[in-house]
Amino acid sequence: MTRRAAGFPGKGKGKKAVISLGLPKGSLQESTFELFRRAGFRLTVDSREYFPDIDDEEIEAILLRAQEISRYVEAGVLDVGLTGHDWVVENGSDVVEVCELFYSKATARPARWVLAVPVDSPVQRVQDLEGKLVATELVATTERYLAQHGVRAKVEFSWGATEAKAGLVDAIVELTETGRSLAANNLRIVDTVMESTTRVIANKQAWQDAGKRAKIESLGLLLVGALVAQSKVGLKLNVASDNLEAVLAELPAMRKPTVSSLWGGEWHAVEAIIDESVAKVIIPRLKRLGAEGIIEYPLNKVIP
Question: Is 216 found in the same domain as 99?
Fold first, then answer.
């Protein structure tokens, strides 16, 4: 299968994209588009279309189910893709994992595939599933998990709505971020089968191509930078020389704050990047220590 056969419409004007990019359609689509926006890209797509417009002529994008992306990347139909580590493992895809992206549809925590049963089920541990029936979308991984625990059980593929099947089978293995949906459906978690985060993955041949690799690495760098910036803010303030040491001792920073002398030498401008979660605590302290003109500002990207 070639990229043209896969349905890529091309960039037009005879310009060839450097990389073909698979993006997850479905639950991760909105948060993925927002991440790209914060990384500096503009992605737009009609609700019925599968080929997003992206304001980078070196990238050609397509929307696919996350479950399929690693297979297309491994086959070379796509140069690079964003998908969960769970589907790379489930598909046994031989790809390059370029970087890890800590985001999902609801949280920044890793998602979990969990073994769950109805609240009144006699199953208390995985060994209690000997000879039982388990439903999941993650069949191969679940089979390996059961084998690792010495359990022989039948695992059947679930075509979605797996939580609703908990009363029809002995257990399910389902993806969860917070566990609230499982609890709302009267299910309890027995064990965690695996944790997963979103990854940027690349085709091995594309990774060996200098031009493609440079573009893929740049993309990964910007996406990671956008995620790092999401939890941080910039802080600017002015402080008199007599109070500078006390302010710097109180001020956290990614490395060390930037300190510049203001005209006359009696005052200094201080700038730092801090965790947003501590800003509301640290700013009043800095004010009490003599800082003035304190400015907190959001960040788009922080490149580690």
Answer: yes
pLDDT at 117: 96
How far apart are the C-alpha atoms of 229 and 209, rounded to whole Å? 30
User: Which has the closest alpha carbon to 276: 224, 226, 229?
Assistant: 229
Both 138 and 184 in one domain: the answer is yes
The parent domain of residue 187 ranges over 111-196
pTM here is 0.84
Q: Does residue 11 form part of some domain? A: no
Maximum separation of any 2 CA atoms in the chain, in Å: 81
Interatomic CA distance for residues 162 and 157, integer angstroms:
9
One domain for residues 202 and 187: no
- Token couple for 158: 């679930």
Kindly give the interhelix angle for 276-288 and 241-250, rounded to the nearest 10 degrees: 150
pLDDT tens for residues 241-264?
999 999 999 998 777 899 999 988
pLDDT value at position 5?
A: 39
Environment class of 264 (CB within 10 Å of its CB; exposed 0-12, middle 13-18, buried 19+): exposed
b/e map 36-56, b = 16+ CB within 10 Å: bebbebebebeeeeeebebeb
Residue type, 114: V
Which CATH number does the domain housing residue 277 bear? 3.30.70.120
Helix (H) or strand (E) holding 207, with range, is: helix 204-208
Structural domains in the chain (count): 3
Taking CA atoms, 103 is separated from 49, 65, 77, 237, 275, in Å, by 24, 17, 25, 32, 17
Q: Tokens in use for 56?
A: 């980078």
Distance CA 171, CA 162 (A): 10
- The amino acid sitting at 198 is T
Q: Are residues 118 and 236 in the same domain?
A: no
Tokens of residue 137, six digits:
């979308």
**For the segment 43-55, what is each residue's pLDDT rounded down to a tens digit?**
999 888 899 999 9
Residue 27 shares a structural domain with residue 100: yes
